[in-house]
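User: My advisor, Dr. K., asked me to get a structural model of this assembly before our group meeting. I'm new to this, so sorry if the format is off. These are the inputs:
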Amino acid sequence: MKIMHNYLKTLFISGLIISFLGCDDTITVQDLDNREIPDSNVSYSKDIAPIFELKCVSCHGNGRLDAGLDLTVWSGFVDGRIVVPSVSNNSVLVWTIEGRQGFPPMPPAGSPFLPLTSKQIQGVKTWIDEGAENN
Ligand code: HEC
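Assistant: The format is fine. Below is the predicted structure of the whole assembly, which you can bring to the meeting.
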């Protein structure tokens, strides 16, 4: 009876581990920060959206829309307010991720979310300067 019980317990735990590993397609902030971003032909879906997915959407998406911004969708950027397509230097999005022009730094200082790396900031600027396409 005891052996049987241990057997079932092992089976149950292995099942849990397998289903956990099997479903885990999320990436960590560390994986994301190590990713390369090309110098040109930056892709919104491949290179840019995952950055905001991990570092911004807890406050700007999924039911919580701080400052009225939904950063889970492309249109949330290119609504004429935070991204000026082709002009990264005039885009509020860039001012916030760089914390300049009197805009609050994003993610906010003191929040548990890590700032963008310089590589990611450069990637966002390139994406905007290439037209901020939904590519
Ligand atoms: C912990 C919550 C939180 C996170 C994470 C966060 N924001 Fe914000 N964001 C806010 C709040 C609150 C405001 C509005 C209040 C303010 O201006 O400080 C705001 C405002 C903004 C604004 C509008 C600024 C303006 O004055 O028009 C932009 C753009 C923005 N966030 C972008 C981002 C980006 C990009 C990220 C991720 C890199 C991010 N935020 C992460 C809470 C957050």
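One thing worth pointing out at the meeting: The pocket of heme C is lined by residues 52, 55-56, 58-60, 66-67, 69, 82, 92-93, 96-97, 103-104, 106-108, 111, 113, 116 (CB under 6 Å).

User: Perfect, thanks a lot.
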